Amino acid sequence: MVLIIILVFLGVFAVAALLMAASGTGASKESKQMLARLDSVLATNQSRSDMDDLLVDVRKNELTSTIPWMDRVLRQMEVTPRLRRLLYQADLKWTIGGLVLMSVTAFAIPGYVTYARTGAGLLALAVGVACGLIPIGIVFRKRSTRLKKFEEGLPEALELIVSALRVGQSLNSALGLVTRECPDPVGSEFRITFEEQNYGLELKTALDNMIQRAPLQDLRIVVTAILIQKESGGNLAEVLEKVVEVIRERFRLKRQVMTHTAQGRLTGLVLTMLPIVLGCALYFVNPDMMSILWKRDIGIKLLYAAGAMIIIGGLVIRKLVNMDV
To answer: How many angstroms separate the CA atoms of 322 and 15, rounded?
Structure first.
């Protein structure tokens, strides 16, 4: 009974919070206040130090949620910068508060429905956790797709840099050429690095920031080659040309590995989804027979054992077919 009350409370709270987030009242109010402050600054003659302080405040005032009290709570949590970086790498316009509310809603509603249907608290908790991880899984999926697209476009960007260096342009000019010619996400990431250098940031710091935004092994190789050449000298165009060859060879080897492990990955997917799909199909065909699994103690124990074995088997197969190249 206590679990039902908690789940109902979480569900109602999540729905109300989502409605508040959709209305965006907190964000619009803070936007109006910020515009009013900027208008007052432009309309009056303030000192240079006051102007600098205001500009610093504007740069740091990035909302983590459209709900004011949630924004204050999330700012105090250490996990907030990691979530913000994760959302940036996934190229999603969500706020951290929106991601948290979606996860809470996806946890509370299916968990409550499962508990109301079966009466098994542990099973309802497992279903709620699994559904609550779906928004985070979407973020990781989007992140993986974007980083893969960046990795595929990196050799073309390096070839542009090599061509620009061979005709006598500087590295900074070559980076500017990449920002104009290459599509996103390669062009956007190099544009940020290019602008950071123009604003006076050191080359090493700007490249390190790009690695933080796109944590890829190929990009680390490129950055290491550029920094070593900067310290020791040499022909950067030739070095980057060799790096492009290495990256393309890694792509070729990775495709071969994916081809040889395709059967194992498909087997793991089928073995993981088959019990779940078969159980749902049998429930629609004969609900009374399948309901024995959660109406009797032995059935609940069998469900827990089956779920644990499915998870362990899927992880083992994933470990066997995933090879680092």
So the answer is: 39
Dihedral angle sign, alpha carbons of residues 250, 252, 254, 257:
negative
Q: What does DSSP assign to residue 67?
A: S
> Token digits for 105?
């809603």
The end-to-end CA distance of the chain, in Å, is 52
**What type of residue sits at position 200?**
G
- What is the overall mean pLDDT for the chain? 79
* Mean pLDDT on 126-131: 88
Global pTM reads 0.69
Question: And the tokens for 320?
Answer: 């066997």
Q: Which residue has the tokens 């049998």?
A: 282
Render the burial of 302-323: b for 16+ CB within 10 Å, e for the rest. Answer: ebeeebeebeeeeeebeeebee
* AA identity, residue 171: L
In the chain, count H helices and then E strands.
17, 0
Rounded CA gap, 285 and 45, in Å?
A: 77
What kind of architecture, by CATH, is found in domain 145-257? Answer: Up-down Bundle (1.20)
- 158 burial (CB, 10 Å; 0-12 / 13-18 / 19+) is buried
Report how far residue 171's alpha carbon sits from residue 161's, in angstroms, rounded to the nearest whole number.
Answer: 7
Contact 83, 99 (CB under 8 A): yes
pLDDT digits (tens, 9 = 90+) for 18-63: 444 443 434 445 555 655 555 554 554 444 444 444 334 434 455 5
Provide the 10 A C-beta neighbour count for residue 97.
24
Mean pLDDT, residues 241-267 taken together: 88
- Residue 271: CB atoms within 10 A of its CB come to 13
Give, in order, the Cα–Cα distances in Å from 38 to each of 44, 59, 64, 256. Answer: 10, 13, 22, 57
Q: How many CA atoms lie within 13 A of 104 on its CB side?
A: 19
